[in-house]
């Protein structure tokens, strides 16, 4: 489900143009916009024409806690109006120009595009960059979706249990930079807090049955299976108790040693239910999954670029066994296994389903954030490995993609989802002033 947002709506006009026609168009737009799902509208119902109208609209909207403003140039209008609104609101603006109406008596009727040009110039020359321009008859839903991502990041509470994995310096974050760039806050917890978190026998029993119903567990001992069930119950309650948006886990080297099993299998089960869980203490990876989820993408997860084949032109998206179990290809044996950590590394093992993919990495480096975006396609493959994985082909040579990753020093995890989720994220990057690597 997409993240809900609250948007303001105004229409600017001037009586020297065909403001009556603009008002008719605006009333239809108001009706059309109410059909958008998961958007709460704060609408200024009448045309904003005078400076007094602009101030009144700005005052009203300033109390509505909007996430962005849709500012329609119904006709050409006073330049004061958009500046009055921006001064009061400090949110991203969609400057919306309407297609010109048929001429009437040799006079241009709306001159809406010129109004958009005026507004964009005034904002830019005032040092304001978080505006987007369209000229069309309907709203840009990708812009709306971009605001969903911005709101999700701004309201995110990301937990980290333990720390980043040993030696994984490249997934570390600077908490204040993260907050300054996204609004996300990080809270730290010790591994022992999760390991010792109390859960009922009923919760564990329910998770145990769910694991048996979902996976082939024939290679696990009753101790290992019970530990995975316990951890599934503990993670669920811990996540809910602390009202987390995501949880980054130091999943090795101490986890399996101290708890008895690694968290991989439990993470596979719970990510299929919509929880955002990132491996190896990767906070930026968790944020990437939050962004994908805000767009309505189901069950994002992190993968490694584990193999590239330049001759056959594919990449292997692999991780040790944490991909959401609902993404199984439906053909191979979906099982749990203990192939690492001396028999304590209980992981999910299966091939992921085929389909269109979108790849995202929000990544911090050298005091700034940047965004890595790619489109790919998962194609069928046999179950040849332990862990969870897919064979992916890009819409460009795989070597070019690998070069982008290593030449820009991107961290080795990226979020992947099924479907196409690219342009809203490009808009996010532009609004935030982030470099896009694609």
Number of domains: 2
Structural class: alpha/beta
Identify the CATH homologous superfamily of the largest domain: L-fucose Isomerase, Chain A, domain 2
* Secondary structure: number of strands: 18
- Binned, the helix content reads 25-40%
Whole-number radius of gyration? 25 Å
Question: If strands are numbered along the chain, what order do they take across the biggest sheet?
Answer: 10-11-16-15-14-17
The CATH architecture term of the largest domain is 3-Layer(aba) Sandwich
Number of helices: 14
- The end-to-end span amounts to 26 Å
Top-tier CATH class of the largest domain? Alpha Beta
Largest sheet: 6 strands, antiparallel, barrel
Short description:
With 438 residues, the chain is an alpha/beta fold. The protein has two domains: 5-139, Rossmann fold; 152-437, L-fucose Isomerase, Chain A, domain 2 (3-Layer(aba) Sandwich). 36% of the residues lie in helices and 24% in strands.
Could you characterize what this model shows?
With 438 residues, the chain is an alpha/beta fold. It folds into 2 domains: 5-139, Rossmann fold; 152-437, L-fucose Isomerase, Chain A, domain 2. It contains 14 helices and 18 strands. It has helices at 19-33, 51-62, 80-89, 112-125, 141-154, 175-182, 191-195, 201-214, 222-241, 254-259, 264-271, 283-294, 398-407, 423-432; strands spanning 5-12, 39-43, 68-73, 93-97, 131-135, 157-161, 185-189, 246-249, 277-278, 301-309, 314-319, 335-337, 347-351, 355-365, 368-379, 388-394, 413-418, 435-437. The strands form 3 sheets. The protein has a 6-stranded antiparallel β-barrel with strand order 10-11-16-15-14-17, surrounded by 4 helices. Helix 3 links the parallel strand 3 and strand 4 (93-97). Helix 9 packs across helix 11 (264-271). The mean pLDDT is 97.
